[in-house]
Amino acid sequence: NLIYILNGPNLNLLGKREPEIYGADTLEDVAAMCVEVGAGFGLEIRMLQSNHEGEIVTWIQEARNHAAGIIINPAAYSHTSIAILDALNAYDGPVLEVHISNIHRREAFRHHSHISARADGVIAGFGVEGYALAMRRMGSLLS
Ligand code: DQA
Questions:
Q1: What CA–CA distance (Å, rounded) separates 122 from 12?
Q2: Is 66 marked active-site?
Q3: At 3, is the secondary structure helix, strand, or coil?
Q4: If DSSP codes are grouped into helix, strand and coil, which group holds residue 52?
Q5: What catalytic reaction does the record list (predicted)?
Q6: Which residues, in sequence order, are CB contacts of 28 under 8 Å at separation 6+?
Q7: Which is nearest to 84 in space by CA: 14, 13, 31, 8?
Q8: How close is the Cα of 97 to the center of ligand 1, in Å?
Q9: Nearest atom of ligand 1 to the alpha carbon of 11
Q10: In CA terms, which of 45, 75, 110, 129 is 20 to 30 Å from 22?
Q11: Strand, coil or helix: what is 40?
Q12: Domain tally, the chain
């Protein structure tokens, strides 16, 4: 089974960007961790990142035919994007939402995620380990 792991804006800077909030690991480190966890469940991953909302929408549409599940950290688009929510609503497989930081402990504008209305599960505040936990959960959901 192939899992799409989608990452929103500024996550290309993971490891360099506000490390006190997001930690020192890069998105490549996260990908390596997810490959390892996925192997235990027979899952392969496609790790994608974009700073463009429409590109993320297109990947979610593509996932309809190519991915057994989606793990998504929509980053700032969590709080603004109906388009990403709509794309996920048109996707049939499991969707797990990950936030590296605990969005509920941060500014009020981060407390609400439009994406959570579609997510089968949400992880926030576990650092990049949240991705590994989401991979484990994806393994259970798809077995
Ligand atoms: C984030 C939290 C968002 O509020 C923020 O805009 C991000 C990253 C997280 O992983 O903690 O870019 O999704």
A1: 21
A2: no
A3: strand
A4: coil
A5: 3-dehydroquinate = 3-dehydroshikimate + H2O
A6: none
A7: 8
A8: 11
A9: 12
A10: 45
A11: coil
A12: 1
Confirm or reject: Cβ of 7 under 6 Å from ligand 1.
no
**Predicted TM-score (pTM) above 0.90:** yes
pLDDT value at residue 80 = 98
For the chain (143 residues), the mean pLDDT of every run of 10, in chain order, is 98 97 98 98 98 98 98 98 99 98 98 98 98 98 96
ipTM: 0.99
Residue nearest to atom 9 of ligand 1 (CA): 99
Separation between Cα atoms, residue 11 and residue 104, nearest integer Å: 19
The CATH number of the domain where 47 resides is what? 3.40.50.9100
Q: What is the pLDDT of residue 11?
A: 98
Residue 47 structure tokens: 């790790």
Q: What are the helix (H) ranges across 51-126?
A: 53-66, 82-89
Q: How many CA atoms lie within 13 A of 114 on its CB side?
A: 16
- Which among 20, 98, 100, 114 is the best mutation to test ligand 1's pocket, defined by most ligand atoms within 8 Å of the CB? 100
Range of the domain at 122: 2-142
List the beta bridge partners of residue 5.
47, 71
